[in-house]
Amino acid sequence: MSRLQVVTAPARTHDAEELLRINAPLVTEWLVEFLRDEMIRRRGFHRAVVGLSGGVDSSVTAFLCARALGPENVWGVRMPYRTSSPESLEHAQMVIDQLGIHSRTIDITPAVDGYLQYEPDADGRRRGNVMARMRMIVLFDLSAALNALPVGTGNKTERLFGYFTWHADDSPPINPLGDLFKTQVWQLARYLGVPEVIVSKPASADLIVGQTDEDDLGISYHLADQILYFLLRGYRVEQIEEMGYPREKILLVKNRLESTHWKRHLPTTAMLSTTSINDYYLRPVDY
Amino acid sequence: MKIRVAVVQFKPRKGDVAHNLDRVAETLRQIVEENLPADVVVFPETILSGYFLEGGVRDAARTREQILQELSCRYQPFARAEPLDVVLGFYELWHGKYYNSALYLTLEQEPARCRILHTHRKFFLPTYGVFQEKRFVARGRTIEVFQTRFGAATVLICEDMWHSITGAIAALKGAEVFYVIAASPGRGFRGENVGNVMKWQTLLCNMAEEHGVWVVNASLVGFEGGKGFVGQSTIVNPFGQVVVSAPLMQEAIATATIDTEEIAIARANAPLLADLEAGLADLLIEMQEIAEEQHTRDRQ
């Protein structure tokens, strides 16, 4: 007697890469419309200022802004510190040249060192935070000068990891990439035509010489994004472990996620009345 | 009977009811002046205010009489000889409570003849994920079918459509045309279209095919605080086939002439509604049992 063919569902992990796949042309169309809507229609700004680090997130943001507003309305701002990699500066210039957007280069070294001379013992983390906050001062000031809006570049993975400086990288009023995992930003970058050298280099905050995100975080973005995907959907550690992910990596991601909720919120306010803002008095951001 | 239907999708100005009534009127003017084929013009859920209002619902809510009066005033300068029916969504103040509602009204040249045919108050209020409706509006308690000059119709709002039982009730009560207004923020960008657009297309087609009814859907467009409404308003025939769709995200009007005679043909091919009617008494007992069991279990 002939046996019936057996079809077995593939293991969950085999699908994980597929689950993070995006339809890049559709996402582009959506984000271009988002930028036009939030900037022009809602706020009346026709110009954007983007801090260009030479990395993939800010490059993608600049590409999207150029599509949404026209390159003549986008300013790419390079803000090197004396320890920044020269390669970062070159890669930022490649984006400026390819898109034909305006550019400014502001060396933040005197401003950062001007403050740090009073805190000579500040460690790398503090120095990095000062640089990030200095860059925001520049972006907001230039946007005031240009009658433009600063556009954020943070991706979902770094937001979920709290891998950013609070009230610095996260402070621009609009952010097109904030709901895209890092690996999805890479997909979008390749579709948009961001130079491959930028997409394929190891991601780095470039606050310390030789630093890479993946070393800092202790996990690759490919693995982190897959684990985040399942954690955010409410899967328990044990269930994700059963899919074949290493337990220590799952716990690493979970701990970072759960210790940084505060970074994704506005400052905590003591509630004293029944008209407390954002507790009782609830109005959407665009109301 | 043939009904010329137009579905409209535009981005309302947040919380500005007067402005959005102006835009509804402008759209009607375009339809009249360009002589577009429209007996019934359908606008999306919360078209008069935008969807995500939170506590702003209390500012934007109006009574249905106010809406009728405001719209009939705006309609008069360009009113056409034949009546024009309008379906639209708005936040409603009714008997001291706020609702997410839909009006079906008829506009005429003579202001005194403008009238409300039906009000539907959203039955299923999504309160999960990005949605918070139960916090800000009360739930409607009925699913009604009403007579228009084109036959029996029903109006459903968004999540009402996600429960097959709602459509089943409307079909059993005799509705031949379902006007389904929605506000669906885009989520899911892996497939060939936005995830919830594909889900909506499936829902609309399944509902139309299961009951052999016309389904006329108007879906909101525009971004609200980063949440983008998808649009792609769609009209589906009683065989479950898409007749026309408006574009994704963009402001547009989509029109189609729908023929209620096709309902009998579809139902003869797939008499599911008749089967449902035949089994109704047994289903009712089953439902009663479930309700009683749940009630008893929750008492323990």
What Rg of chain A do the Cα atoms give? 21 Å
Q: CATH top level of chain A?
A: Alpha Beta
CATH architecture of chain A: 3-Layer(aba) Sandwich
Rg calculated over all Cα atoms of chain B: 19 Å
Counting helices, strands and paired strands, the structural category of chain A is: mainly alpha
Outline the biggest β-sheet of chain A.
4 strands, parallel
* CATH architecture grouping of the largest domain in chain B: 4-Layer Sandwich
Number of helices of chain B: 10
Termini Cα gap of chain A? 70 Å
- The end-to-end distance of chain B, rounded to whole angstroms, is 54 Å
Task: Tell me the major beta sheet of chain B.
Answer: 6 strands, mixed
Find the structural class of chain B using helix and strand composition.
alpha/beta
**Overall residue-averaged pLDDT value of chain A:** 93
Could you give me the name of the CATH homologous superfamily of chain A?
HUPs
Taken as a percent bin, the fraction of beta residues of chain B is: 25-35%
| Count of β-strands of chain B | 14
Produce a short descriptive summary.
Chain A is mainly α and 287 residues long.
Can you describe this structure?
The complex is a heterodimer of chains A (287) and B (300). Chain A has 287 residues and is mainly alpha-helical. Chain A has one domain (12-264): 3-Layer(aba) Sandwich (Rossmann fold). Chain A is built from 13 helices and four strands. In chain A, helix 4 (86-99) links the parallel strand 2 and strand 3. Chain A starts with 11 loop residues before the first helix and ends in a 29-residue tail after the last helix. Chain B folds into two domains: 2-269, Nitrilase/N-carbamoyl-D-aminoacid amidohydrolase (4-Layer Sandwich), CATH 3.60.110; 270-300. Chain B contains ten helices and 14 strands. In chain B, the strands form three sheets. In chain B, strands 5-4-3-2-1-14 form a six-stranded mixed β-sheet. A six-stranded mixed β-sheet of chain B has the order 6-7-8-9-12-13. In chain B, strands 10-11 form a two-stranded antiparallel sheet. The longest helix of chain B has 20 residues, at 280-299. The termini of chain B are far apart. The mean pLDDT of chain B is 96. At the A-B interface, helix 2 of A face strand 10 of B.
